[in-house]
């Protein structure tokens, strides 16, 4: 059940108290913990700078909360699960304030922030059956059943994105899948497993796996990926880069750090590279972002909104561009819907990337091998050819 009495939340960065969120008269306030101020660590330097005093935020981009905390909030699939849970309890989801939603996330969110007190949901399952979870996710999307709703909420309710997914532990040999709520078992790591939506092509998981292989060949930093084969299908999985065993790594999306509504095309690659340089002060990180821009343009990945780029911060407060994620063939708004190689060349020159042409060629050489990667992943020939027709090569 949701507690309508949650008016304050204590926030921690790993084991260190970060500060307190509070709500009063429909306004949300934040104050850094006195001891955290001494660390000098900027967890969100542009919109929530490290300084004493009470912050009040009047921007409604993320329901009145700062982007750093909005990054912990589920959207798409996770929010759907959370709202269905509220309705099941007889609660209007519109009456649930952001602090109550963050309390549901608790210590299970992406990145290194946790929220206390946490609202726990009873976990009835310990064994993971991906086929059953997939079937239940489809039924929930279609509104025909709510079987395993709470189990899916526990496993994937804190994740972002529209695609159904679960957060699990997977063994190093990829043969065993365990519940993410259990203590990390020796020989296991934290992974995200994605399910197709009803409107997705049946090979969508294989396509994303093929894209991950192609991205690696293009020199893009990407987490370990795999296809998990079951009796009823195959599911794309990616190792979580915000976890190093049981250590949590602070993560901030481009949308969150810049307070940009990812549902609208408010940022472009020029903004991405500019912010990357300003935040990391490292041209190598800018090159990573540029290489990813080249890949997305050449492979027709138009799902390149501001939540699909992130930054990671280490324990010393140093930032870097995160590994790439959500790379797949997709339609969507882009550079006037007609981006060209010339746009990339101009972008590279503007940001003083000396080896612009070299990076573009390396990415292009990998993309030219699309049929090979698609075959490796098991994408059917017709869909492989259909995707290839949209490439800018």
Give the gist of this structure:
The protein is α+β, with helices and mostly antiparallel strands.
Question: How many individual β-strands?
Answer: 15
Report on the biggest sheet. 5 strands, antiparallel
Q: Main sheet: which strands, in order across?
A: 4-3-2-1-5
- What is the tally of helical segments? 14
- Percent strand equals 15-25%
Low-confidence stretches: none
Arithmetic mean pLDDT: 92
In total, the number of domains comes to: 3
Rg, Å, rounded:
21 Å
3D architecture notes:
The chain folds into three domains: 8-116, no CATH class; 130-243, no CATH class; 246-388, no CATH class. It starts with 7 loop residues before the first strand and ends in a 5-residue tail after the last helix. Helix content is 34%, strand content 18%. The longest helix is centred in the C-terminal third of the chain and has 16 residues, at 283-298. The mean pLDDT is 92. Helix 10 runs antiparallel to helix 11. The chain has helices spanning 34-37, 67-70, 77-88, 98-105, 130-142, 149-156, 204-217, 254-258, 269-280, 283-298, 341-350, 356-367, 370-377, 381-388, and strands at residues 8-13, 16-24, 27-32, 54-56, 113-116, 165-171, 177-179, 188-194, 225-229, 234-239, 243-244, 247-248, 250-253, 310-313, 319-321. It is built from 14 helices and 15 strands. A five-stranded antiparallel β-sheet has the order 4-3-2-1-5. With 393 residues, it is of the alpha+beta class.
């Amino acid at each position: 059940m949701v507690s309508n009495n949650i008016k304050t939340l204590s926030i921690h960065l790993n084991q260190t108290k970060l500060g307190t969120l509070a709500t009063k008269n429909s306004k949300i306030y934040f104050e850094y913990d006195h001891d955290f101020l001494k660390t000098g660590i900027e967890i969100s330097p542009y919109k929530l700078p490290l300084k004493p005093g009470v912050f009040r935020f009047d921007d409604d981009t993320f329901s009145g909360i700062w982007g750093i905390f909005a990054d912990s909030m589920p959207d798409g699939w996770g929010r759907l699960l959370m709202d269905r849970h509220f309705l099941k309890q007889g609660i209007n989801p519109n009456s649930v304030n952001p602090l109550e939603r963050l309390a549901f996330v608790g210590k299970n969110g992406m990145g290194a922030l946790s929220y206390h007190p946490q609202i726990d949901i009873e976990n009835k399952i310990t064994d993971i059956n991906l086929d059953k979870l997939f079937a239940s996710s489809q039924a929930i999307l279609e509104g025909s059943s709510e079987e395993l709703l709470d189990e899916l909420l526990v496993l994937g309710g804190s994740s972002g994105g529209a695609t159904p997914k679960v957060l699990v532990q997977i063994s190093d040999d990829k043969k065993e899948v365990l519940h993410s709520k259990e203590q990390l078992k020796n020989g296991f790591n934290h992974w995200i497993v994605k399910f197709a939506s009803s409107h997705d092509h049946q090979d969508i998981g294989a396509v994303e796996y093929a894209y991950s292989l192609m991205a690696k060949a293009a020199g893009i930093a990407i987490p370990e990926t795999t296809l998990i084969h079951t009796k009823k299908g195959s599911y794309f999985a990616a190792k979580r880069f915000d976890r190093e065993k049981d250590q949590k790594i602070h993560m901030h999306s481009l949308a969150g750090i810049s307070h940009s509504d990812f549902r609208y095309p408010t940022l472009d690659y020029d903004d991405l590279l500019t912010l990357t340089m300003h935040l990391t002060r490292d041209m190598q990180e800018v090159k990573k972002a540029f290489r990813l821009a080249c890949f997305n343009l050449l492979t027709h990945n138009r799902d390149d909104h501001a939540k699909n780029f992130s930054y990671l911060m280490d324990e010393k407060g140093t930032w870097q561009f995160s590994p790439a994620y959500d790379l797949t063939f997709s339609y969507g708004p882009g550079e006037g819907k007609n981006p060209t190689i010339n746009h990339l060349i101009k972008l590279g020159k503007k940001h003083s990337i000396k080896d612009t042409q070299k990076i573009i060629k390396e990415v292009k050489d990998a993309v030219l091998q699309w049929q090979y990667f698609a075959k490796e992943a098991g994408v059917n020939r017709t869909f492989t050819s259909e995707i290839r027709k949209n490439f800018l090569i």
